[in-house]
Request: fold
Amino acid sequence: MLLTEERAAAKAAAQPGRRPRCDWLWGYGLIAPMALGLAVFYLWPIVQTLYLSFTESGVFGGQTWVGVDNFAALFGDEEMLGALRNTLLYSLLVLIGVPLAIVIAALLNVPGLRGLGFYRTLYFLPVVTMPAAVGLTWRYLYNGDFGLINYLLGEIGIDGPYWVSDPEFAIYAIAVVGIWSSLGYNAVLFLAGLQGIPKHYYEAAAIDGAGRMRQFFRITLPLLTPTTFFVMVITLINALQVFDLVYLMIDTKSPALAGSRTIVYLFYEQGFVQNSRGYAAAIAVVLLALILALTALQFRLQRRWVHYE
Amino acid sequence: MRLRMALVAALAVTLAGCGSGTDTTTKSGKITISYAIWEKNDQVSTQKIIDAFQKQHPDVTVKLEITPWDQYWTKLQTAAAGGAAPDVFWMNSLNVRLYAKGGVLAPIQNADVSAFPQAIVDGYRYDGKLYGMPRDVGLPVLWYDKELFDKAGVKYPTADWTWDDLRAAAKKLTDPAKKQYGLLAPMWDQGGFYPTMIQAGGHVISADGKKSGFDEPGSIQGLEFWTDMINKDKVAPPAQATTDTDPVQLFMTGKYAMYYGGSWLATAFKANTERGDKVDVAPLPKGPTQEAVILLGLANAVSAKSEHPVESAQFATFLSSEEAEKILSDTGGASVSSRAGTQDSWFNAFPNYHLKEAFDASIPHGVPYPVSLNTAKWQDVQNKLLAEAWAGRRPTADAAREIAAQMNEILAKE
Reply:
C-alpha cells in the first residue's frame, strides 16, 4: 500500500507538468456525460430548429429552403399575435404567485410551528404530481355542470360559468392552476432563502424596538431579493413555455381555445396537427428569442432592486 | 399505343423483379412482422385474429403494438419519416392520401373488396390504386332516451323522420326549468354537420378535392341546423357545455333526449348498468334535399418499406377476410366488421338496440368522408371558425364563408 503511494508520488515528481493535464482530463471526463447530454439533446436540436425555421418541410422529411418566408408570415399571423398576447397575460398572472409563495414560506418558517413537515409536504405535493393528473383533476373541478367549484357556488346561490370553456374565464382559470402548481416549488426556494438570513439582524432589530411587520418589510424582504429574483426568472421562463395545462384543460373544439392558445400550443398545432414543420420551427425560434430577451431584461433590472448581503 | 405497351412491359419487369427479390429473403426461416393499432378495446379481437393467421402461416409471427390515438399519428409519422413504419398498421381515410403520396404505403394488388361498402373502399383509393384493406364501419346514428320520450309523450324517432320531426320533438323534450334538453349538439363532423350539409344539398369539398363547398347555400343551411338548435331555438345546451363534458357522458345523465352519436357507442352504453337499457337507436333524420350518412371505416395498410412485403400484404388481406371479420364481429367489441354477411353476431350482442335496422336503412345512403391531401390542415381551420359559430359569437354563414376562403387557399397549395 505504502509502496504504491510512494511510487505514485515519485512518478508525479519525476514528470512535472503531467499532473495538471491529468486534472484537466479528469475534469472533462467528469462533466462529459452532462456535456454530451446537453449537446445531443439541447444544443443540436436548437441548431436543427434554427435551420428548419428557414425551410418548408415535407410531411415525411425533405426540406426546401424558403429564407425568411416563415418569419414574414408569422408577423402577419393573427393567431400568432393572439398566442403572444395570451402567453404574456398568462405569464403575468402566474407571477402573482411569487408574493404568495413568499407569504407561505414566511408562515412555514414560523419557529415552533406544529406539523411543519405536514404543511411543507402539502404545499410541495403539486410539484411532484404529473401535469396530466393536475390538468385533468382541475378540469373536473372547473366543470360547468358537474364541477365541485360550481356546486359550492350553487350552494350560496351563484350560477357559475363554464370556467374552462368560456372565452372570458379560460385563461384566468388556467393561470390559477399554474400558480397553484408552482406555489410549492417556489415556497421551498423561499424557505431556503429565509433560513439563510442571519438571526442576529432580527435580534438587533428587536432591541431597537422593531415589530414583526417592520422586521419582515425591512429585513426579510430586502435580504430575500436574490431568491425572489431567481424565482421570478425561473417562473417566467416556465410560464412562457406553458403547454400541458392548455392542452389538457381546453378541448380542441372549445370556443375558449382562441383566448387561451399559447405560443407552444400554436407550435404544437402547426407542427403536429397541420404538418407545417418549418412554420412551427419559426414559432419556436421566436419563443426562444422572447425568453432570451425577457430574461436579459430581468438581469439588467436586477441591479436596481436586488440586494446581495 | 406502342408507348403504353412499353410502359406495361416495364412495369411487369419491375414487379417481377420485386417478387423474385422478396421470395429469396422470406423462404429462410421464421419471420416477424409488426402490426400497429390504436384501440385498446380491440386488443382481444385483434389477438384472436392474429392467432388465426399464425395458424395458417406457422412461419410468421405478428407482433401487436398498441399506441393510444393521441400519440398514434405523431409516432407513425416520425417512424415513417425515418423509414421505420410498422409492417402493417391502421389507417383512416383522413390520412390515407397524405401517406400514399408520401410513399409510405404500398398499394394493395388484386384485392377483392366487393363485399365492402363502396363509400368506405373509395376512401382508400388514391390515384386509382387501393392503399388499405377495409376493416370496420362506423355508422353515425340517432341515439335517443326512451325514458324522456315516454315522460313527454313523444313518439320514438323512426326511419322516416325529417329535420322538422326532429326539431318539433326536440322542442317538446326541452324543459329549461329542469335543465333538460331535446338534443345534444356537439361540434362533430362525421356524424353531425357533414351529413346535414350534404342532406341540405351542399357539400364539404368538391369531388376532385380542389375546392371548398362551405360557402354553398346548402352547406350553410346544414351548419345552421346545428347552431340554430343551440342559439335560436335553445333546444340544445350551449357549446360550452358539450366541450366541458364529453357528450357521451352527458347523454348518459338522462337529461338529453337525443344525440347524434356513433354506432360504436353501443359497447359503452350497454356497459352502463343504470341507463344503458333506457336508450335506443334510429337512423339519422332525412334532410330537406336528400338522405346522406357518412360511413367511416378504418383500413389495414402495408408499409412500402416493409422488409417482408409478401407476408405483410397477406396479413393485411387476411384481416379483411371473412374469417377475420367474423372473429371481429363475434367478439362484440367497439368495432363491427364492414364486410357484408359478417355483422349479425355483432348486432345480436346488443339485443336492446335496433342497430341492424339502423344499418340496413343507412348503408345505401353512405357517402365517403370528405378528404383532400392534407385534410387535417383545413379541418383545423374549420374547427377553429365553427367553434365561434357554435358558441354564438359569430354568424354561422359568415364563419362558413371564411372557412371556404381559407380552405380554398390551403387546397390551392396542395
